[in-house]
Design a protein that fits this description.
Layout: H1 2-13, H2 17-34, H3 36-56, E1 61-63, E2 66-67, H4 68-98, H5 101-106, H6 112-141, H7 149-173, H8 183-197, H9 209-215, H10 219-231, H11 247-268
Antiparallel strand pairs: 1-2
Helix pairs in contact: 2-6, 3-4, 3-6, 4-6, 4-7, 4-8, 4-10, 7-10, 7-11, 10-11
Length: about 280
């Protein structure tokens, strides 16, 4: 009887998937911060672009009373979430797969849920840090008006849905990358291409119609559109392709991307290299 009770207590003390995931998330964050290349490219690159474009186009306006820096801040926050979620994971996971780290983790008692939870916590922590950094720069250096309560609510759900979609897309895309060595060469052009066609670096309506239609197939275009509804005055909505911010459609598209990327991730994720 005593032995049975001790066995039950021992089972109850075993960490569950949630606890393991939280611990794994702390480890992922520490590993990320120890990699100078990842920190510089993921955190410093959007800040550097904001400084460069903000200095070059400081006197330009995208609409009456709307400076380019205000427009660019909205796009860079969305692009920063894409970098942290999609680009970071799509490069990191193939490298870990090539090193055999994923295979070793799969052979441990740790449930797969804990591994993915750790990645999600790392993405959320780094994404929050980068967003706060960009916001501080926007409010202090470029005089971007502080949004009101309703705009902050929009900012919250666009950020959550956007980074969720980008994270799941990063996990799904990692299965297409054949090797960790070739991951940056394959992933970076995709991320940069999406930024150029999604209205991050230039006014979206100035792009060719076919490019606007192509961008509408991907989540970044809708993330930038949602962020513009937060940081730009309501009058700017008339300059959007549909003449309004279409926040309902923004939410729908991002939710669909979350669901679709989740399904693809579950079907295609690989713990070992193809070779």
């Amino acid at each position: 009887m005593t032995t049975t009770l001790e066995n039950r207590v021992a089972v109850d003390r075993r960490p569950n998937a949630l606890r393991l995931g939280i611990r794994r998330g702390g480890l992922e964050i520490r590993q990320f911060l120890r990699s100078r290349e990842s920190v510089v490219f993921t955190l410093a690159f959007p800040v550097m672009l904001l400084v460069i474009f903000g200095s070059v186009f400081d006197d330009n306006e995208v609409a009456d009373g709307v400076p380019f820096t205000q427009y660019f801040v909205a796009g860079m926050i969305a692009a920063g979430l894409l970098t942290v979620g999609f680009q970071n994971l799509a490069i990191m996971i193939p490298i870990e797969r090539d090193r055999g780290a994923l295979k070793r983790l799969r052979g441990t008692p740790m449930p797969p849920t804990a591994f993915f939870l750790g990645k999600v916590l790392m993405v959320l922590a780094i994404g929050a840090a980068e967003t706060v950094l960009l916001l501080v720069m926007a409010f202090t250096l470029y005089d971007v008006p502080v949004p009101g309560p309703a705009q902050w609510v929009t900012f919250l759900w666009v950020s959550v849905l956007g980074i969720t979609a980008c994270t799941l897309c990063g996990v799904a895309f990692s299965s297409l990358v054949r090797s960790g060595r070739g991951a940056p060469a394959m992933v970076t052009p995709v991320a940069l291409g999406l930024q150029f066609i999604s209205g991050v670096f230039s006014l979206f309506t100035n792009l060719p119609p076919w490019m606007q239609q192509l961008a509408a197939l991907f989540p970044l275009k809708w993330m930038t559109q949602g962020m513009r509804a937060v940081f730009l005055p309501p009058s700017f909505a008339a300059h959007e392709p549909a003449g309004s911010s279409e926040l309902g459609l923004v939410a729908l598209v991002l939710v669909l991307w979350c669901v679709g990327a989740l399904v693809v991730s579950r079907l295609t994720f690989r713990w070992t290299s193809r070779d």
